[in-house]
Amino acid sequence: MLNQLRPALVTLAAMTALTGFAYPLAMTGIAQGLVPDAANGSLIERGGTPVGSRLIAQDFTGDTYLHPRPSAAAYSAMPSGASNLGPTSASLQQEIANRRIAWERENGVPAPTDAVTASGSGLDPDISLENAHGQAARIAVARGVPVSEVTRIISVHAESRWLGLYGQPRVNVLLTNLALDEALPLPPAGND
């Protein structure tokens, strides 16, 4: 019995050291060397204060901002994930219908698919160009500027397919909202 237990324990210790310590440390070191910004979460700071990560969706709700995709995880990285409701779920179909009505009422145009369906993680930081441009008129009215100004900023922040092949053209919501604030600042609250 002891001659079988010893190799098992040595193997357990070796694999724990290899996969639990050595591999994660090596990957962290490689990532820090090659892409330190992404390895550190791509945090964005304004005036020394972190405002968010360009890799994780944030909940923007005001009329002056682009809104992200819906999130089954309430935009929290800890319980991130999908709702686990299947496409035939009456509950999911009703939720999507309610989102569609709300989005179309808010923006005045037909809702694109990504405006009413959550991503698998619930943390997708990007929306489609169709979704972003569909929100432009609402943002322009709320900021008191021409729609062309908002669509120009959206277009400047549009990202194309990765390597020209993968994914869809998209807009990072946080980066675009920060650009909107910089280019089209809102008057301070309470100054009527």
TrEMBL record:
Pfam families: KdpC. The keyword Cell membrane applies. One of its GO terms (molecular function) is ATP binding. InterPro entries: KdpC. It is found in: Cell membrane. It is a single-pass membrane protein. Keywords: ATP-binding, Cell membrane, Ion transport, Membrane, Nucleotide-binding, Potassium, Potassium transport, Transmembrane, Transmembrane helix, Transport. The keyword Metal-binding does not apply. It comes from the Bacteria. Its main location: membrane. One of its GO terms (cellular component) is plasma membrane. Signal peptide: none annotated. The system is composed of three essential subunits: KdpA, KdpB and KdpC. Part of the high-affinity ATP-driven potassium transport (or Kdp) system, which catalyzes the hydrolysis of ATP coupled with the electrogenic transport of potassium into the cytoplasm. This subunit acts as a catalytic chaperone that increases the ATP-binding affinity of the ATP-hydrolyzing subunit KdpB by the formation of a transient KdpB/KdpC/ATP ternary complex. Belongs to the KdpC family. This is Potassium-transporting ATPase KdpC subunit. The lineage of its organism: Bacteria, Pseudomonadati, Pseudomonadota, Alphaproteobacteria, Rhodobacterales.
